[in-house]
What we know:
Chain A is α+β, with helices and mostly antiparallel strands and 619 residues long.
Amino acid sequence: xxxxxxxxxxxxxxxxxxxxxxxxxxxxxxxxxxxxxxxxxxxxxxxxxxxxxxxxxxxxxxxxxxxxxxxxxxxxxxxxxxxxxxxxxxxxxxxxxxxxxxxxxxxxxxxxxxxxxxxxxxxxxxxxxxxxxxxxxxxxxxxxxxxxxxxxxxxxxxxxxxxxxxxxxxxxxxxxxxxxxxxxxxxxxxxxxxxxxxxxxxxxxxxxxxxxxxxxxxxxxxxxxxxxxxxxxxxxxxxxxxxxxxxxxxxxxxxxxxxxxxxxxxxxxxxxxxxxxxxxxxxxxxxxxxxxxxxxxxxxxxxxxxxxxxxxxxxxxxxxxxxxxxxxxxxxxxxxxxxxxxxxxxxxxxxxxxxxxxxxxxxxxxxxxxxxxxxxxxxxxxxxxxxxxxxxxxxxxxxxxxxxxxxxxxxxxxxxxxxxxxxxxxxxxxxxxxxxxxxxxxxxxxxxxxxxxxxxxxxxxxxxxxxxxxxxxxxxxxxxxxxxxxxxxxxxxxxxxxxxxxxxxxxxxxxxxxxxxxxxxxxxxxxxxxxxxxxxxxxxxxxxxxxxxxxxxxxxxxxxxxxxxxxxxxxxxxxxxxxxxxxxxxxxxxxxxxxxxxxxxxxxxxxxxxxxxxxxxxx
Amino acid sequence: xxxxxxxxxxxxxxxxxxxxxxxxxxxxxxxxxxxxxxxxxxxxxxxxxxxxxxxxxxxxxxxxxxxxxxxxxxxxxxxxxxxxxxxxxxxxxxxxxxxxxxxxxxxxxxxxxxxxxxxxxxxxxxxxxxxxxxxxxxxxxxxxxxxxxxxxxxxxxxxxxxxxxxxxxxxxxxxxxxxxxxxxxxxxxxxxxxxxxxxxxxxxxxxxxxxxxxxxxxxxxxxxxxxxxxxxxxxxxxxxxxxxxxxxxxxxxxxxxxxxxxxxxxxxxxxxxxxxxxxxxxxxxxxxxxxxxxxxxxxxxxxxxxxxxxxxxxxxxxxxxxxxxxxxxxxxxxxxxxxxxxxxxxxxxxxxxxxxxxxxxxxxxxxxxxxxxxxxxxxxxxxxxxxxxxxxxxxxxxxxxxxxxxxxxxxxxxxxxxxxxxxxxxxxxxxxxxxxxxxxxxxxxxxxxxxxxxxxxxxxxxxxxxxxxxxxxxxxxxxxxxxxxxxxxxxxxxxxxxxxxxxxxxxxxxxxxxxxxxxxxxxxxxxxxxxxxxxxxxxxxxxxxxxxxxxxxxxxxxxxxxxxxxxxxxxxxxxxxxxxxxxxxxxxxxxxxxxxxxxxxxxxxxxxxxxxxxxxxxx
Lengths: 619, 619
């Protein structure tokens, strides 16, 4: 069986739920078709299985090596990266003007699922190149783009994002890297950046760094930050490559993603580092924010990828591993051993993993789809509407993707039992690799502050209102399905609880208890994420139930026994039954708790704020 | 500040909550006193800090090496182990008849906290020796005890538990290791055991294995299992040490606890392996069950230890690491950076870690205390009562200890941010080391089946009834405290919800939906665990509130501002305020969700049972 991505479920999300094939109605995606999309996904799966997956553990074991200022990636990564680059995967959804293929973003993300599930550490190299290329495309001068962008989109050169410094992580406004204007319009860059993913490596001949820095004389804080393209090797006027005073001084040793080099980078140690301003001076933070949605969605896709691989590996193991007898026969020692998937506790764990993974998949692809719709829209109003959906969804995608993905990896270890803890089996690596997703690209705490402090408050809650309207449109259809009425009721209660918390935050924000929304931003984000997933699964269940009823009709299955037979014998019926089961499981197990979680927030216990430092533990 | 165990909180649990000093009223513990106890704890802390902690990371990096049939533990472990052995720590709570010191078990567990927090991998060697020694003490012949037990309690020789086989993990009844009666009353043992912790190593000269095996002709399943002491080196009649055909054939490579050797052991490859029967033939499982409470509590203490160290490390980091400005001043770039403990989201994470750790501490020590009371009781009725409390508590201690401990480790990484993910800082190791606790000593799924299938059903729910009575006795006192009324109300609702699920299980168990209690056993255990922790914290809050009121009176602090001043300036007041804060946080954040979690179970969604295998994912 497949061990990376359940392609049937992926197709369900893309074509039956989101109907991405209809994106071809927009001029921007007129080249796009279902056939093309299917073909691309099939190729992505092949590449992921044949080249990425086989070097996932070797990359983990070998890691990156720092030797004389250079970084060697795991030897086995070179071939897989070459195949990826040759296939044009890096710029699948990018502008055809610079060598991209102009496909919808949601399709590129569906491909990312396969690569992420197979080998996240390897995918980071082109992933960061993609993010930095898009920045260059949007804010670089045409000269810069001519010089660097083609090669980046082709994967021949790579890119990074250089934000973090020793005292400026979440607090990016505190950064110290300096830029000095030079007479020729370029800037001299000087400073140290840490935790730079793929900052130095030997997969490509050149690396273009997108560096946040403060221009001399610029204001303190986030308002004085600019962003620069800083190539490791600069293309001179004569077209040669010249050293640009960019050095890597060391690597981090990490819990996971050993194959991805995490570098400390020094720019301008000898004051000879040239940077090219992107956009205008002091607009670096705004530019970063604009590019942030894609980067954060990419991180959410990491969580989805690990969850997907962890779930399918655990499922496969549960089908193959025989141990214990059925409870009905447990007292008879002669009874045959059964695959562990027959044990209720294992099935519960698998259903948790299944419904979580499928919910995350729908959430991520909805995020990408909204970005596509915003890009493709011709009317400004529609553009803004979809941009607003995306803005609201992205902190959920990033935070819930990483947290729930981690939880799924943890559960996979539990399904494997003792074998889950040993490196001979793949799941412990998933757990280690996944953990970083809750930290980088803005910690999940920062995502929560983004949601509560920025997204909720935007134009007096406009984003929430629009999202609730969109949900109501779909929900009104689902309500007609009598068989889902119990799930609808639980969902509606959960949504209402969440809306209550939203209002509670809005009120508290105006009082001297303005810290309460900050204190409970993360539990609120978690609640919103679960409600969003519950909604997406409910929506899926409604579609699946319609299909399942059609199959019952085709088989003249009118009573329960004959329907059970159809579900057990017909693969399509089994799939749709499984989709409904995911919704039932998640909504019954998770959304039933939404009211309690809302109450937990609105009880507004402020002990965490009131406790003196000595109260945490005597020093 | 302390980085392993909050000794003030530990003393609060031991002396103010459980009042373990009163154990000295029992003849069994007549030697025991508060002074002695304080001294022992102080020594444990010193040893843990000075010898265990410094070699925790080195042990992780070096790991164990398998060389020519022998296993070398990390070089740095030898000295620390020697100090531990010399100090007599292994047999602190064991019978003075065999060299032990006869202290209460709860005190030994409090010492374990320090060692577990400092270096769990190292502690496993004496920990397993202790478990196997107790088995030998209770079921070995006096000859066996004379020969082996003194040296084991002295830590000169070590011990293991050999249960798991390739096809017999959770399903221990399926084991294949064979025992053949020999004319001299000993047995010839033959079989393979896997995942044997500390199965072979060079810390001691000899290792005594406690091996489950089936005697020729014995019934299949669990009823035909016997248990044997199988020394690696057998003491011959002339007192010499002879090889006993016990070999280690390899080590597992694991996610964590690298310093603890996880061995594959072959017994009797040459049919020359001699084993000594413990107890009677075919009573191996009953004997194992009798010893299980202590072993499972030990695993729970692992989770507590990691949680405690992770919490204190994160707290220390949060006090030292400066980043970001207070929200009130965030828009002014000149505002000074503050330690991250000033940020509400960080405080919330710390409060989660604090309340969880303190709750786990109370839970573990209550478990140990009940075992002590059962041992010390002179009336049979009292013995049984306390044994029953322990029987009910142990699956909670083991499962919640490991799961919540893991969650605390995960949160510590989040507090550290990017630094939490790198091996330069200690928290990623806590996470890796902690994970195994949910798997070994009976997976947490098995703990849930033990709770639901065995403990709830014992004598028609007698254990639950007795526990509820004990809770009500304490609760009736807490209800008199007006300032805790909100917490009491949330607690009572949560308890009632849990009781409802218990009754629901009892009813379902008698219908053809008898699988429902199995399906939801783990969520039920989690709920019971949280309710138990909530109760223990509420109990603590009541004690703390009384002390705090006394301090207020002593300082003539009658209004809120003067009370706040006392709390900020007086360390005792800060501590008691922190205790109340833990209860407020946990009860408000966690127990408010109990009703929803109970509903999630009693909705009795059976999709996990009904879904066909193809519905999980098409093959």
